[in-house]
Amino acid sequence: MRTRIRAGDHTAFGELFDTYARSVYNHAYRLTGQWSAAEEIVSLTFLDAWRLRERLDTDGGSLRPWLLGIATNVTRNSRRAARRHAAALARLPRDEPVRDFADEVAGRLDDAARLDLVRTALTKLRRGEREVLALCVGAGLDYAAAAEALGVPVGTVWSRLSRARTKLAKYMEPVPIRGQMRDDRGTAVGPLREGNR
Fold this sequence. Notes:
Elements: H1 2-6, H2 10-32, H3 35-51, H4 64-91, H5 102-123, H6 127-138, H7 143-150, H8 154-171
Helix pairs in contact: 2-3, 2-4, 3-4, 6-7, 6-8, 7-8
């Protein structure tokens, strides 16, 4: 049998597997305590046995000790590889949890819609009203400084700013969607009243 295995006889190697696979599995299971690891060790043991077949002595008895020795080395190497793999994984930077960006996107869409509404509302103002608004609200000038910048009386700045604010408030009101009640965005259907049944 040893001579046939050393020569690479596939039939002899199949017989070797049939004879000792259960013994190698039991040994691997005792070493690892896990059936899946033991199955992997059996496969690797016979793969190594095939690779090392030319080192097998032609004289001797049972091949079981030889196979169990290979299985012990395979188990040791597997554990070493698992430790190295775990250590390598531990050195990797941890992934930050992926945050939910849906609220941010919705906020940006709302901001974009609001900005479009503001731009549209500003185009409806008269030039003088836009200028006063830009100086007083945008640049932070007081009435006197804005009047000086525009070359107009302070009262004109005040009245233009007042009109601009009133118009903007009107233009900034959301347009109601047909069938939707104003300020009723939370519900699809308005509440039923006793008299409307």
